[in-house]
Every structure is written in structure tokens, then in C-alpha cells.
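Researcher: Structure for this, please.
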Amino acid sequence: MLDPRGNTAIYLIYAYVRMCSIIRKSGLTSEQITELARNKPYKITHPDERILAAMLIKFYDVLNDSVEELAVNKITDYIFDICVKVQENYKKYRIVGD
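Model: Predicted structure, C-alpha cell format:
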């Protein structure tokens, strides 16, 4: 349960904190990020971006399945899969500053 690797709460919290750190280091506020997302078109060109975007698009379906089947673990498994992909990309690429 306390293992920082694998599908555990600690791993998910660590991934969340790391993502928050990336956003903080970018120097942008959440309002600025929202404004950029609305006004500046973003084109997904890299295969890893495409994979992550496809995973994020599935959120509504995962949420519906979880509610219909009363299976909260589907949401946590989904979040874990996203965290794994983000962590892989974090190791492969320089995120802030590029």
C-alpha cells in the first residue's frame, strides 16, 4: 500500500505532486493555462502526445462504466494508467522550458 511504485495511493499522489510541480515551474497560473487552451490552437504531433490525449479522452467512458458497474476501481486503474504514461514521458522528455 505504501510502495512508491505500482498501482498504489502513494504512487498516484507522487505523480499528482510531480504534475503540479511542472505546472508551478512553468510560471503560468491555472487561469493563464485555461486562457491559452481556449485561444491558442494546439496541434498534437508527437506519438506520445497522441497516446496520452487518447487516454484522456476516454475519461467520460471510464466514469460511466464505473458508475454502471459500481466499480470505483475502474477509475483508479484509469488514473494509474495515465500516471504511468505521464511518468514515462517525464523521464524521456524535458517538459518545462520546451
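Researcher: Any notable elements?
Model: The chain has a mean pLDDT of 85. The first helix runs from residue 9 to 26.
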